[in-house]
Each structure stands twice: as C-alpha cells, then as structure tokens.
Design brief:
57% of the residues lie in helices and 16% in strands. By secondary structure, the chain is α/β, with parallel strands linked by helices. Helix 7 runs antiparallel to helix 9 and helix 8 runs antiparallel to helix 9. The longest helix has 67 residues. The protein starts with 13 loop residues before the first strand and ends with a helix.
Length: 542
C-alpha cells in the first residue's frame, strides 16, 4: 500500500486525472471500488497497521433516495451520503452508511445509484448479452414494468418449486402406499379404543384370581353374618344394651347412634359381599378372550415400537392422514397446475409489453450509436440490434438480444465481440455510456483509460463527448492523452514522492500553470521543450 493518508475533493463537471504509469491511479480507483462494496484484499492494509479506512462523501440532494434508505433501514440525511469501509488486519471488514453499520449488499446496491466506474476490462461487457439487454431496457424505460414482472416471475418460480416438491412427495408416498395401507388396515381392524388396555388388564387380574376372590367374600359374609359369632349379631346386641341405658345414662344415646350406624353399614356390606360372592364365577372363555386381546395389543405395540395404546392409536391416525394425503395429491397438484398455467399467461402478457417497449427503443438506439460513432471517426459504421425469442420465459422476459456491428464497407454485420477492435470497442462503449447517462441519472461516472487505442482527432472528439456529459453530471476520466487532459474543467495529478522511510502516492489538483507543464509532459515526455509548452497552452486555450 503506497498511501498513508490522502484526502481529495473532486469538482463538478468534467475532470481529468493524469500521472505516469505506476504512479498509483489504480490504487485510488481501487479504494473507491472498495468503499462501494468490492471484495476485500488484505494487501490494501499498510504493513504493521491495524486497519485501513476508506471514506467517500456523495452529494445526493437531487436523487430522491429516501425510499432506498428507508427500505434498508439506513439513516437518510437528504443532502449527503457518507460511505465508509474499514478493513482490519485480521481480514475482517466493516461497512457504514452515514455512520450506521450496513451490510455489503446494501452498500453495493447504493453504489449503483451513485457512481459508475468504467475501467478497460468493462469494455468486455459489450460481448455480454445481458449487458446489451440492460442497455436496451434503460433506453426503453422498462424499469417499472420489469420490477412488477420479476416479482410475478419469482412468485411463479416459487409455485413451480411447490409443485415439484409436492410431486416428489406424491411419488414417494405412492411407492409407500401399499405398506401404509396394509399397516392402517391392520390397526383399523384391531378396533383400538382409548383406555381399553388398562380396563382389560384389570379384568385379566380379576378373572385370573376368581377362586381367591370368591373365597375371601365367603369368609367376609361369614364373619359379618355368622349365626353365632357374626359381627352384625354382636353389633345388634351391643346396640340393644346401649338403648336400655338411655333413660338414666344420657351418654348411652351417643353410643347407641354410633353402634346403629356401624350396624347398618356392616349389614349393607354383608349383603353386597353375599351378592358378589354369588355373581363371581370362573369364566375360562372370557379369560382366554381377554388374554388374546391383550396379546394382540402388545404385539402391535412391539411391531410399531409404541409404548402405549394411546401412541398406537396416534400411529393409526397418522397412517390414515397419509392415505388421505395420497388420495388428495392428484387433485392438489392438478389445482396448482391450473394456477401455474394461468400465471404463465399473465407473465407472457407482461413480457410481451416489455418486448414491445424494447423493440420500440431499438431503432432509436441504433440511430444514436451510428451518429455518435461517425463523429468518433468510424464513418462506415453499421449497428443493428437483433431480437430472438427465448424458448422459455425467464427473469428478463422472452427476449434474447444481440448487438451486431460493422465498421467497414462491404463487411457483413457480426456480433460485437467478433468484429470490433479494441479502439472501436472503447469508442462504442463511450457512446453507449453517453447515450444512457441521461436515463440512468447517475451523480458520477469515472472512465479509466477509455481512450485506450485512440489518439489525435478521435481522442479530441471523445473528450468533447465526456465534456458534454459533464454538463449534467460529475465525470472523471483517467487518461494518458493530452487532447483529453486539456479538456477537463479540473485537472488532478497522481504522483509518487519519496520520504525518508519509503515511497508514497499523492494526488492534488493542478493550478493553471502546472496544467501547462503536465499537458506538455504528456506531449513530449519527461523533457519539456518550448514547442511542447506552446502546444500545451494552445490545447488548453481551446
């Protein structure tokens, strides 16, 4: 990293940035790309430093970004926006918008509203059909329709995924249907009843001990109602004794009542015990049925690995629900298919409207680009936008787009990537940027050596285009051409200087006299001559 600390304010309008190769222009661009959310490289941090901080301030007063800030839960100033990126030596990074921590996705999205950095490698985008489609969409003003369409399209994809998942589920269930149906029928045939197992286990205990129960009740009735020593006979005699004392011993009345109550209870108990003694009979057939029924329930619980009858009933109910779902899958899928077909009709209608706008804008784009390219020294240029209809509807609709280009007479139109030279690509990209700049309404655009492969009069005309762009927006171009450098409203020089410890990169705005020398250097090299200085003054005067 060649920068310790650097602050620079770029002017409105068209500005140029120059400097010798290796001076550090790419570092400054890299810092700007970093603050706009690009990938972190720990080499950006000074050796032995804890962190690297890059901050950029944008004037956003004219760009109505309230909705973006609100939807991303960011503080909105209304006048300016401060983006800051901090890279830590540990490799981690943090991003801030107006001093509020923000995810990189929000930073990148915000950057799309603020600045367009056009480097040489971006010329390769011209071969990208998606970029070509985006150019047409900008000129056709399809943004609102596309936004609605894409929302519907993603909902359609979600529905398609839902259908796919349901079909997969149905196929799996179909493969398991015989098993599920057999298990359910077996459990259904068992006629499971809540609480039945507990009752049967109690009945089993009773039937298994009939003799003991009958003997015990016989003994109980004998003890209570035995003719000689029965408890009831003794209670009756005790009651009679207490009743005889009531007239002259009041306490005997209380005892008499208590004995009477006990006598009545014991008498009732004896009667019930006598009835039970007669009713309880050994029933081997019932005992066998209860044992078989309990054995059936235990085997079913073991088979399905259930601990209780309630769990077994729940298992039966789940099988019933699965069978019901299997039976309903076909109807549910059919209903979703009908909805999908209706949705596709709507999407195709929306895509058709978008396609009409694109085709309507295509002729205007072709004419503008041809006119601009002729001004840039390609007199025999031909340019055509070819539309194809995609086999399947997609996120961008039904259109496939390809830019066809020819720079020479008697040369057939071919895709841009196959025909245009490096210089022609640079000129074509500049024309496209100039054409769509008014539609995208970006506050700033930076051209990084877009003039590569050009010189002389063509470079001068490219500078005119960038100068015109600067009437409505901030334009900064990095250039090695004096014709372009001389057209800038402001001129910034990137240079290296040696300190006691190391070499560092700096940037500063040049005063008028300094501009003369810098343009002269670009004309003649390191050694300035009177001719180069005079030539520089003439370029700057123009």
């Amino acid at each position: 990293m060649l920068i310790d600390e650097l602050n620079i304010r770029f002017e409105n309008g068209f500005s140029v940035m120059t400097g010798e190769t290796g001076a550090g222009k790419s570092i400054i661009l890299g810092a700007l790309a970093l603050v706009l959310g690009q990938r972190v490289d720990t080499k950006s941090i000074q050796r032995n430093a804890d962190k690297c901080v890059v901050e950029a301030v944008f004037d956003i007063s004219a760009y109505r970004l309230e909705h973006f800030f609100e939807s991303n839960d960011l503080e909105y100033d209304g006048r300016q926006c401060i983006l800051r990126r901090e890279l830590l030596s540990s490799g981690k990074s943090r991003a801030f918008v107006n001093d509020t921590p923000a995810p990189l996705s929000a930073i990148k999205a915000l950057g799309d509203y603020l600045i367009d950095i056009h480097s040489q490698h971006q010329n390769l985008l011209l071969a990208d059909t998606q970029f070509q489609l985006n150019v047409v969409d900008v000129m056709a003003n399809t943004a609102d329709l596309l936004s609605v369409y894409r929302e519907e399209y993603h909902a359609y994809l979600s529905l398609a995924a839902q259908i796919g998942a349901l079909e997969e589920k149905a196929q799996k269930a179909s493969r398991e249907e015989d098993y599920i149906r057999f298990q359910h029928e077996e459990l259904q045939a068992a006629k499971l009843v809540e609480g039945e197992q507990v009752q049967l286990e109690q009945e089993q205990e009773t039937l298994s001990h009939t003799e003991e129960i009958k003997a015990s009740f016989y003994k109980l009735t004998t003890l209570l109602d035995g003719e000689e020593q029965g408890t009831n006979r003794q209670l009756k005699e005790a009651l009679s004794a207490m009743e005889s004392l009531q007239s002259y011993f009041p306490k005997a009345t209380e005892y008499a009542e208590r004995l009477r109550t006990a006598f009545i209870d014991m008498k009732d108990l004896a009667a019930e015990a006598n009835t039970l003694k007669e009713d309880i009979e050994l029933d081997p057939e019932r005992l066998e049925w209860v044992n078989n029924r309990l054995n059936t329930l235990h085997l079913l619980q073991q088979k399905h690995r259930m601990k209780s009858l309630d769990e077994l009933i729940a298992c039966r109910n789940r099988f019933a629900e699965q069978l019901q779902a299997i039976d309903s899958y076909e109807d549910e899928i059919a209903a979703l298919r009908r909805k999908q077909t209706e949705w596709m009709v709507t999407l195709e209608q929306q895509a058709g409207k978008i396609s009409e706008l694109r085709q309507g804008a295509a002729q205007n784009i072709e004419q503008q680009l041809v006119q601009r390219m002729i001004l840039l020294g390609v007199p025999n240029v031909r340019f055509k936008i070819e539309f194809t209809r995609n086999a399947h509807i997609g996120e961008d609709g039904l259109d496939g787009i390809c830019f066809f280009f020819s720079a020479n007479k008697n040369e057939s139109l071919k895709p841009v990537a196959q025909t245009a030279s490096g210089g022609e690509i640079s000129r074509l990209m500049l024309c496209i940027k100039a054409m769509i700049a008014g539609y995208t309404a970006l506050p700033s655009i930076i051209f990084d050596e877009i003039d590569a492969g050009t010189s002389g009069e063509i470079a001068d005309k490219m500078a005119d285009i960038m100068q015109d762009l600067g009437q409505n927006m901030q334009v900064i171009t990095i250039t090695h051409l004096p014709q372009i450098a001389a057209k800038g409203k402001a001129h910034y020089l990137v240079y290296k200087e040696d300190t006691e410890e190391r070499t560092v990169t700096n940037i500063r705005r040049l005063a008028d006299t300094e501009r003369v020398n810098e343009v002269a250097r670009m004309l003649s090299g390191a050694t300035l001559t009177e001719a180069s200085i005079a030539n520089a003054k003439e370029l700057l005067k123009r």
